[in-house]
Every structure is written in structure tokens, then in C-alpha cells.
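Running this now, will post back.
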Amino acid sequence: MAKRPHFISICSQKGGVGKSTFTVLAASLLHYRMGRRVLVVDCDYPQWSIHEQRQRELQLIDGSDRYKLMLLRQYKTTGRKIWPVVHCRLPEALGEAERFLDGQDEEYDYVLFDLPGATAVKGVLPLVSSLERVFIPMKADKMVMESSVVFARLVAESFVPNPECATAGVHMFWTMIDRRERTPLYGQYEAALARFNLPVMRTHVPARSRFGRELQPGGGPVSRSTLFPPERAFAAECCLQELCEEICTLCETR
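Update: finished.
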């Protein structure tokens, strides 16, 4: 391809912070609403949760005239087919992404990799060192923060300065924030992150139960889907649009 896409990952080395959920939400917003062509590479073997969600949704579409009509209208409005997802084992992830892109007539803007949630998995760190940017969701929980900081420091101190690595930056962002809660923890954590020179994104994502809600057989508002973007009110309320805009600014600003 004449233009190389941005190879990025929303990843974490601690479960329960929504790395796969944010990958789906970001891919759908970028692809269906923000004018970027997106490929997702699901290399989180053996669950391949994004690939499995796509298969569930395609089966649901087969029996739903409503969703078929929504897809048709979306295509007529945006000219976008559904974003492709490639699932593979971790060592094959980069090669599978390159093979897919080489076989396309159109240029892609972003490749999002969904990684296993542990650096101990063979191949995680070599793949991370080949990505342009890494985005790490974090929440104000001691165990999550310890894991996130260790991982972020490894990337920031070992990969970013290394000219043999592609990594240009690691960026952390707050998620699962209860806005009713008044706590000094966030300020304390950010002061600690600043001491390690770990940048924190300005976007703060609040906690919402609908993050995990997939398409329903009976219809209803769209939250997390591989076929449609989240509805606008939900994306604005949860700062998802703001998060994706910040990701684009970081990746696309030279």
C-alpha cells in the first residue's frame, strides 16, 4: 500500500478494564462515523472475543429485517462496508495484517490489534514494539494501577527510545470513573505517573453499564457493536467520541 496505516493497540496487562470493548467501540466510531478505514486484528487467542462477537452479530443480522435495513442505510450514507476483522495467533498477527492490506484496493487508516492481557504470553512484547502507539485504559484500583504502570514504563523506557522499535508513544487514559465520587486518588495517581514521565490523555471515560451490551434480537439502542457505531448520545455521554478524536490527533499530528 502507498500509505501505511497507523498500527495501534488499546491494551492492558490486567483484566477487567475493557481493552477489547474499547477496541470495538473505537473501531466502529473511527470507521463508520469519523471517516477512517479500519482493520481489526484479533490475536487474543484462544477466546478471540472480537471475532466471536462479529460472528454472533452476523447470525443475528440473518434473522432481522430491521438490522438488515440499518446496514443498508448505513452503507448508503457512509459508503462503508463493515470493518474487517482478522483473527490469528499472536506470532502471525503482523504478517496477517500485512497480507490483508496488500490484498486490498483501498487504503486503510488504522489497524487495531487486540492483544492478550499478559506480557508473559510469548510474542506480546515483540508485537508491541512493532506498533506505532499503545493506549492503556486504567482505573483507580491499586492492582490495576500497579500492573498498568509496570507495562507502560516498559514500553516508554525500552521501546520508545529504541530506534529499532516502531513505538512512538504510550498513552494512558482513565476509565470506569464514577463522577459522583469525590476522591483525591486520581490526582495522586497522576502525580506518580508524571514522575515516571507517563502521559495521561485528557479524555476521562465514565463508568456505564451499557459498555458491555451487544446488539439485541428485539432491537434497541446500539452500544457496543462491530456492525454499527454506538448511538451518538451514548458516545457523547461516555466521551467515546472525544477519546477517538484524541487518538486521531496523537496519531495523525506530525
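The longest strand covers residues 169-177. More later if anyone needs it.
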